[in-house]
Design goal:
Pfam families: SET. By secondary structure, this protein is an alpha+beta fold. Among the domains are: 108 residues, Beta-clip-like, CATH 2.170.270; 100 residues, no CATH class; 183 residues, Cytidine Deaminase, domain 2 (3-Layer(aba) Sandwich). Helices cover 26% and strands 16% of the residues. A hairpin with a 2-residue loop joins strand 4 and strand 5. Helix 13 packs antiparallel against helix 15 and helix 15 runs antiparallel to helix 16. The protein binds S-adenosylmethionine.
Length: 730
């Protein structure tokens, strides 16, 4: 059963991290790897088979790090680190003010913050490489471990680094100074130009994003939840490459708030929808075959790709091996490290240290289009791959996880491009937000637009109605009833042409809007050109009739405000839920109005039928009732007529439902069972409000945060307890 009032944030993104869950993860975790890495501070006792020195490679800037103690192929599992989890509030209050803050990973987001993880074992000691990290990692929520895997081959002695994300890191130069990451970006661009890749606006956009992320100094904390590719567990120990690389900055808060450095509102409304929010849509990956390409041999690689396509077609493997990776760029720049020991002295003479040099990784095709590595190798050799391989060596294709789709927006491009340079979707009309509640299920929701829609006045409107619901629910409780209340009202965002405006009370005692109170017939006697001196009496009669009709219409069309609480206990009737009760109240108000309308028209009730509404807003009441009937399981405020953001001038009425708490373990439109809030696609398991097969689609908004602006967490918890939120039956 539903109830009124404040949401339960912790229930939304609950990550089980009870002691037993944690303990069960431990046997799977093999922290401290299998003898091929070394820490840079000489703690070689950690290694099973230490083979590389480590004390002498400690870096003056980076400090300790993780180093390969033998040559490693791509896809080698370096470490599976069990994690120590910190709930968001504990971390906010304590963890972030300690040294931990330089070591923790974002584990899971919730609407009130991020649950953080400290990787035990080697996991906390990987340094950051902003350009070409040779290690990728995957968060395994079920086992509570992080898996670190080489993203490409690494040589003995090479430092193993992950990427903490894009933008300037907290230890890097501050405003005005050229940051390390920025100068690397410039290098990328120069190199790309030299290699004939050219620059386009996407690369420029990358720079923009990096700048924006400087607002948040927490590179690691900016990590965005990533959906690993389904096949990442299929990577063999040799062939596997990236499972997932760490992702870039993007936060659970609306980006605009982040960009402006604003704190999130203390209380706001969040649209529950199956539609994807480009700003929080999960990044999905798929494995693709890549190969290292000599930068000066890109022409030969392009020729290979063409020949490869024909050969794959001819072999009947697939029609177009590049089709599903078309949103990806052909190349990604990476660095080739010099062979280990290259800088060592030789015959007593020291020689200058060799620097890593840039090479390219060339995209061949998605693994699903070429499942057989043997066949791929055979084709590479047959089609003359040595003409573009690095130093003309043996072709060695390997798998890398790459974005399965284009970036959903320009602002997410940096996330996508951290895996592989990717195009982004343009945001045309079809992506501009929810079209309307009457349209088919929208694909993309514009959260930024939603955010702008809820001005302080609109939020105040919602807050005051929800507060009234809470008061009524508490009243119900004081009478021994289930503390649930529902309310029907006119939406704040109802456009004026549909009866929007400031509600006012008429002399007849009904409430209606300033717009709907205008009399449709008042001007007509003169404006229709029918006013003549010859027929004054007939015109007067017509005018009087028109005014009476308008009055009558106004009576029935005026918006209804109604509220009711649950009376199931009192009436010993399981159907007497707050929403069915409010429907009954609405129905009786309508019936009274109908009588008054008939009186005004001088009709008897027996010989008339309800006419079609003629004044804007007239359908509201009926819609409100329908809404309540459908959604009694979670409604608190049902409002009809205008709806929330994104209606974009659509003139058909929208139905809107606002609520505070979902029903525990249930909920047709609020996602209570899945708790997907803020992760995108959070319409819940049923998303009944968006079912294309149903007539009554509507918008659903949930109040997030405290209801009262000055409420403390204790106040919220107390209120939740008062309303028995956790004790309600589903
Ligand atoms: C997760 S820890 C890595 C282990 C760390 N080097 C140590 O000795 O404990 C992150 C810290 O390492 C340092 N660090 C990591 N990558 C770096 C880099 N590329 N340049 C400079 N410092 C780096 C920063 O001080 C950062 O706060």
């Amino acid at each position: 059963m539903p109830t009124a009032v404040l949401m339960a944030p912790s229930a939304l993104d609950a990550t089980p991290h009870s002691k037993s869950a944690h303990a069960s993860a431990l046997p799977q975790a093999t922290s401290i790897s299998s003898g091929f890495v070394a820490l840079s501070n000489g703690r070689s006792e950690h290694m099973n088979r230490p083979t590389a020195s480590s004390a002498d490679v400690s870096h003056p800037e980076r400090g300790r790090g993780v180093f390969a103690t033998r040559d490693l192929s791509a896809g080698t599992v370096i470490d599976i680190s069990p994690v120590l989890l910190f709930p968001a509030d504990e971390y906010e209050q304590h963890g972030q003010h300690t040294q931990l803050d330089s070591y923790t990973f974002v584990w899971r987001r919730s609407k009130e913050g991020s649950e953080m993880a400290l990787a035990l074992g080697l996991g906390s000691l990987f340094n950051h490489d902003p350009i070409a990290p040779n290690v990728s990692y995957t968060l395994d929520h079920s086992s509570q471990v992080i898996r670190f895997t080489t993203a490409r081959p690494a040589q003995k002695g090479e430092e193993l680094c992950i990427s903490y994300g894009a933008g300037r890191m907290w230890w890097e130069a501050s405003e005005g100074e050229s940051s390390r990451a920025d100068s690397h970006n410039e290098l990328d661009e120069d190199e790309l130009l030299r290699l004939g890749q050219g620059l386009d606006e996407d690369w420029e956009a990358d720079k923009g994003i990096a700048t924006m992320q400087h607002i948040n100094r927490h590179g690691l904390r900016n990590g965005h939840p990533v959906k690993p590719s389904a096949s990442s567990s299929d990577h063999g120990p040799r062939d596997a490459a990236l499972s997932t690389t760490p992702s870039l900055a993007s936060t659970a808060q609306p980006r605009s708030a982040v960009a402006q450095g604003k704190q999130p509102e203390r209380g706001r409304l969040w649209r529950l929808t199956e539609a994807i929010d480009p700003e929080s849509a999960p990044l999905e990956l798929l494995p693709a075959w890549v190969i290292d390409v000599e930068p000066r041999r890109t022409g030969a690689f392009v020729s290979f790709q063409q020949a490869f396509k024909k050969a794959v077609q001819a072999a009947g493997v697939c029609e177009d091996p590049q089709l599903i990776v078309r949103h990806l760029r052909t190349y990604r720049k990476t660095m080739l490290s010099p062979p280990a020991g290259a800088e060592a002295s030789s015959a007593g003479h020291s020689r200058p240290a060799e620097k890593p040099r840039p090479i390219l990784q060339g995209m061949i095709c998605a693994q699903q289009n070429m499942p057989s590595k043997e066949m791929l190798l055979e084709l590479l050799v047959r089609l003359g791959a040595s003409s573009f391989t690095v130093n003309g060596g043996e072709p060695t294709p390997y798998l890398v996880d790459v974005p399965a789709d284009p970036a959903p927006s320009r602002s997410r491009l940096a996330d996508w491009t951290s895996y592989w340079p990717t195009n982004h979707q343009s945001r045309g009309n079809d992506c501009a937000g929810l079209q309307s509640s009457n349209a088919s299920v929208p694909l993309i929701v514009d959260r930024m637009k939603d955010e702008q829609l809820w001005t302080p006045e609109a939020l105040q409107w919602a807050r005051s109605h929800l507060r009234k619901c809470v008061d009524l629910a508490l009243e119900a409780k004081s009478k021994g009833q289930v503390p649930i209340a529902a309310r029907v009202t006119l939406p704040f965002h109802l456009p004026p042409w549909r009866g929007g405006g400031v509600p006012r009370t008429t002399s007849s005692g009904t409430t209606h809007t300033s717009n709907s109170s205008s009399r449709a017939g008042e001007d007509s006697p003169r404006s229709d050109g029918a006013t003549t001196c010859e027929e004054p009496q007939a015109l007067r009669n017509a005018a009087a009739a028109a005014i009476a009709a308008a009055d009558a219409a106004a009576v029935t069309s005026a918006p209804i405000e109604a509220a009711a609480h649950d009376t199931r206990i009192e009436e010993r009737n399981p159907l007497k839920h707050a929403v069915t009760n409010v429907i009954k109240t609405v129905a009786s108000i309508r019936s009274e109005r109908e009588k008054e309308r008939h009186k005004l028209l001088g009709h008897s009730l027996a010989d008339t039928r309800t006419p079609s509404p003629t004044v804007a807003g007239a359908r509201s009441t009926q819609e409100e009732v329908e809404l309540g009937e459908e959604h009694r399981a979670s409604a608190l405020i049902a409002a009809a007529g205008g709806g929330g953001g994104g209606s974009g001038g659509n003139e058909s009425p929208a139905r809107v439902l606002y609520f505070l708490y979902p029903s525990p373990g249930a909920g047709g439109c609020c996602g209570a069972a899945t708790g997907k809030l803020l992760g995108g696609r959070d319409g819940g398991p049923y998303a009944v409000h968006e079912q294309s097969g149903l007539n009554h689609r509507f918008e659903v908004w949930r109040w997030l945060g405290p209801l009262d602006e000055d409420a403390t967490e204790e106040d919220s918890a107390k209120l939740k307890q008062e309303l028995s939120i956790d004790g309600l039956e589903p």
